[in-house]
Design a protein that fits this description.
The chain has a single domain (1-81), classed as His-Me finger endonucleases (His-Me finger endonuclease fold, 3-Layer(aba) Sandwich). The chain is 27% helix and 16% strand. It is built from 2 helices and 4 strands. The protein has helices spanning 44-52, 57-69, and strands at residues 19-20, 23-24, 28-31, 38-42. The strands form 2 sheets. A two-stranded antiparallel sheet has the order 1-2. A two-stranded antiparallel sheet has the order 3-4. A hairpin with a 6-residue loop joins strand 3 and strand 4 (38-42). The relative contact order is 0.14.
Length: 81
């Protein structure tokens, strides 16, 4: 699996198991919590991200839309809306 993924996370593509910014990214075997089927190897942040979004595709899509809408925003709140 690691060789098939060329040592990289199945989501972000970062190298797994190698030093990066003084931290070692650890290898996580991702699996579907409903079926138990193994999917791919993921870095910790990507693996945790899926879990925090409860593996909910709809919720992840909403998060993507949110990020796209707010990309490059100044961080100020428009109170006139």
């Amino acid at each position: 699996m690691l060789a098939d993924q060329k040592g990289c996370c199945g989501i972000c593509g970062d190298a797994i198991g190698f030093e990066k910014s003084e931290e070692v990214k650890k290898l996580h075997i991702d699996h579907d919590h409903t079926t138990g089927k193994i999917r791919k190897l993921l870095c910790g942040p990507c693996n945790q991200g899926l879990g925090l979004f409860r593996e909910d595709v709809g919720c992840l899509r909403k998060a993507i839309e949110y990020l796209e809408v707010h990309r490059g925003s100044s961080g100020t709140i428009d109170t006139q809306r």
